[in-house]
Amino acid sequence: MSQPHGPLQGVKVISCSTAQAGTVPFMLMADLGADVIKIEVPEGGDPSRRMTVLPGMPSTFFETNNRGVKSVTLNLKAPEGRAILHKLVARADIFGQNFRPGAAEKNGFGYEELRRINPKLVYVSISGYGPKGPHADLPGTDSMAQALGGIAEAYATPGQKMRTGVVSVADETCAILAFGGALAALTHARTTGIGQKVDLSLLGGQIRLMGWTLTTAMWANRNPVTGQARITGTAQRPGISASFNDRDGKPLVFQLTGPDKWSGAMTALGFYPRLEAAGFENLGVIIDNDAKRIELLALLDELFATGTREDWVAKLRGADIVSAPINTLLEASNDPDVLANGYVTEIDYPKHGKRLKVHGTPWQFSETPAKPGIAPELGGHNDAVLGELGYSQAEVADLRARWII
């Protein structure tokens, strides 16, 4: 007997979302077996279909964010289009949208309107800044949330300008939180029969991503030390996470907490005699002492430059110290642990005659494994979905001729 596909079988989702943060939550649900219908405009569809299209391949952006979902085209400015959407919502468990505040209401899919159709509906709304505040009505993007949310400081180097990163961490963080929030609300709806609206924002997700480091900054009322090393803890129990280059310029990182771990790590590397002679037998001396911190990092730079990354990482791991090479994106996609766990996998694209590497799934379910799919053709599920709603072939053809679908 074949294994069932995903733990979300039977969950029905309607998404009027575009871009990344608004689509990834429902793509993840599709990976896990949910029936996800993506609503697109009849002409052109989601604009991200045309983003980053490499020769002979589909859009990396659209494919990554919309795989496994169904595409239905609807003109929501027409009464017939809104009527079809409402019929779909009446059968749905979850609805999602990430339009600017007020746009959903204007186009017939605001929360108050849809909850009258389906009181059990979980309605997920994603914005840039959040539903309240002075900029609630403004559009939002990943770089805007990175800029406001503090992550630029996480990768800042003293003396250099702060900047946002190339990876869409604000979009992805918001999407993952939306995924969890939607399923939490769905659990409540199935228990009580009462749906609800779940509001999330790019900015709110980015603030959550800052974790305990933000708490420390708020409580200490000062920004953290940035640059090559993350210094944490107290003089009695110091911690360090720092990166260094080997003799070939290849970077690595190690992280440890506590005086015993420090001496054990440096002994394993063969660095301890030099460090002891320089007054660094105890890592605690650099806590709240910028000059000592700079001196120690310079000495470690010199020492790590005498050997290879592979050797240093092996010695640190052998001493039970957390250490790893610092991968580029391509190196990460070929990392043995990434591949062994299926975090990156390969799937076939028959239309393009290729088998391509894609994101796998971060979850491994023992009974209901996830199954990544491919993104749909624009309107590719119109006939099937409308047929399930009771529309005849002639009615579907008429809707198509009048650009309702």
Key words describing this protein structure:
405 residues; alpha/beta; four-stranded antiparallel beta sheet; six-stranded parallel beta sheet
The outline comes out as elongated
| SSE ordering | EHEHEHEHHEHHHEHHEEEHHHHEHHEEHH
Rg, alpha carbons? 26 Å
Per DSSP, the total helix count is: 18
- Structure class: alpha/beta
Spatial strand order of the main sheet: 3-2-1-4-5-6
Mean pLDDT: 95
| Major sheet summary line | 6 strands, parallel
Helix proportion = 25-40%
Strand fraction: 15-25%
Cα end-to-end separation: 39 Å
Number of strands: 12
Which stretches are low in confidence, meaning pLDDT under 50 for 5 or more residues running? none
Structure write-up:
This protein has 405 residues and is α/β, with parallel strands linked by helices. Helix content is 40%, strand content 17%. The protein is built from 18 helices and twelve strands. The strands form three sheets. Strands 3-2-1-4-5-6 form a six-stranded parallel β-sheet, with helices on both faces. Strand 7 (229-233) and strand 8 form a beta hairpin. It is elongated and about 85 Å long. The chain starts with 11 loop residues before the first strand and ends with a helix.
List the helices and strands and how they pair.
Elements: E1 12-16, H1 24-31, E2 35-40, H2 60-66, E3 70-73, H3 79-91, E4 94-97, H4 103-106, H5 111-117, E5 122-127, H6 142-149, H7 151-154, H8 169-192, E6 196-201, H9 202-209, H10 211-220, E7 229-233, E8 238-245, E9 251-257, H11 259-269, H12 272-277, H13 290-304, H14 309-318, E10 322-325, H15 329-333, H16 336-340, E11 344-349, E12 354-359, H17 382-388, H18 393-401
